[in-house]
Structure formats: structure tokens, C-alpha cells
Amino acid sequence: MTDPQRYAAQQALEQIGNEGQKRLLASRVAVVGCGATGTAILDRLARAGVGTVRLIDRDIVELSNLQRQFLYDENDLEQPKAIVAAHKLQAINHTIEIQPIDADLNSRTCEQFLGGTNLILDGTDNLPTRWLINDFSVATGIPWIFGGVDTTGGATSSLLGCGGPCLRCIEGLLRRWDTGGSCLTAGVLNTVTSIIGSLEATEALRYLVQGAATSDEARLTLVDPWNGYFRILSFERYSKCPCCVQKDFSYLAGRWDVPVHRLCGGNSFVIIPKVPIDPAVLSQLAPRLEALGKVAYNEFLLRFTHDEFSVFVFRMGQILVKGVADEKRAKAIVSEYFGSAVSV
Hints:
Blueprint: H1 8-11, H2 17-25, E1 28-32, H3 36-48, E2 52-56, H4 81-92, E3 97-101, H5 110-114, E4 119-122, H6 127-140, E5 144-145, E6 147-150, E7 153-157, H7 171-177, H8 183-186, H9 190-210, E8 217-224, E9 229-236, E10 260-262, E11 268-271, H10 279-289, E12 294-297, E13 301-305, E14 310-314, E15 319-322, H11 327-338
Parallel strand pairs: 1-2, 1-4, 2-3, 4-5
Antiparallel strand pairs: 6-7, 7-8, 8-9, 10-11, 11-15, 12-13, 13-14, 14-15
């Protein structure tokens, strides 16, 4: 049973009240990405009492993350972000349900990971994943909220995919705004990730408490706290939008699926195997790998560390290769050390 004091300050708000809190507790939300904006979103939603929070991430915690990803600390290094975040959130609020998924979101997993929710929030770091979420949202009617950061600035949207304009209506603007630099190469201000995450969470709480009618317009909020910039733009549906007008869900159909992704930050690649990995085969392989490097194996992943690189094989199937400069080298390492156990 929830202590009545837990949400007292929130229920005292005229905008929320007792009924609004009940709606929050009955809500189911998915957050894609447990990085800087993602952890800010998750922290706010868990503390606010959103009843079921599903969190999806394919990466591990690294030292460079601690500058801005506030749910993690030094004890969490090299552990799956989704699993660590779930433990931290459950310690913050044990009365809600946390559903961690330490796997890659793609066209094959989209329905499984995002289906059955009331709302999807963006904590990702790349446009292709956002186009996939956008396709899914428009196709299913489950609304979503976009958010992203770039150096000292960030952007976030009002509700998308519920009958009004979608994110691809402003694809040209977003491609100009997103310079394509990684967190390490271009840099990122840690305060802006908290601001964007908080704005996304606020929009989510408003929707979950009050609902939102279909609108012919959507809002894009642009902020740059370093330079004192804050602007809200309105945009309408693009008459030739490939997604919400033409219903061409190419990302959801898998036509843009990429089996190897370079992660934000540089020399790290996620590889999605052609065939799911058998955990039993991994457990048999672990002792043999010990003769070639350091091996750690638990219920979430197998970690193999060589002098120059590390390979993380997750229980959900994706493989993370760190310390390599290009895709070919990443795939070659997996083939060399894991052989027929993994099909890349």
C-alpha cells in the first residue's frame, strides 16, 4: 500500500489532485534509452508515481556516462544500463512496476517492447531510432514525445502521433539541428540533458493526467541554457509527409534496419546477430574464452575482455564491441572469438 505522504505535494496541485494521481498510477509508459535524457525522464516519472515504467536500452554503463547520466555511479560500470536503472528506480519507488529490457529496439522488437503502453518517451541518441518510434506511434495511435540534445542545446516536442503532425513533418529541420556529432566528439552540457528530460517528463505527466485532444498543430521547444535561449515553435502536418500522410512506415517495415550500429561516443558497436544466441552455448563457451582473456558471466551478459577490446554478449541477443575503430573489425572480432556460436 502506498503511503499517503508519498505524493502529497503532487496531489496538492490543482492540475493533478487525487484523481490525477490515480490516473498516473494506472498508466503504462515506455522510455527508449537509459542515457542522459532517459535517466532524467525515468527519475521524474518514478518519483511522480507512474504505475508501470518500461525501460529499454542496449548499452552498458561507462565512466564517461557519469558526467550526465544521474542514475548511475562508479559501482555500476560495465553493467547493463536497463538493469542498473531498474534497480535504482525500484529503490526510489518500490510501489510501482519497473520493466527493464536490456535489448535493441528495432523493427522486429518494436511491437513487443512498445505495445500495450499509453505513452512512449524518447531518451535515444540517433534519428533512425526516432523515425522507427515515429512510425510505430502513427501506425498504432500510441502517442510519443521526442527529445534530444546537441552540445549546449536541446529540443523536445509536444505530443506526437495521435492524429496531428508527426516528427517526420519537420524531418529537414531536425536533420539540420542534429549535427551528427557524438557526446564525446561534439561534447554535451550535463544541465541541458536534465532540462530536456524534465520537459519531456512534464509533457508526459500532463498528458497522463489530463489527456490530450487531437490538434492540427504540434510544438517544438528549443533551449540552450548556456546561451540563455528558449523558443517554442508551432508546426503543422506536412502535406507530403511520408509517415502520417502517405502511411509509408518504412522504418517499421524494416527497410532501414542496420545490423551494426556505432554508438554515441566513438569506438563502440552494437551488432544484432542474424540468429538468436542460445544462452546454453554461451555458458559452454565461457570457460574456453578464459584462456584468451578475462571473462565474466552472469544472468544478464557475458563479458570477454582482451588487451585491446571488450565484447559484451547480452542475454537478449545483442552484442556490444568496445575499443575498435570500424565496423569490419568489430564483426571480425566476434567471428574470431565466438565462431559459429554467433551468426553475424
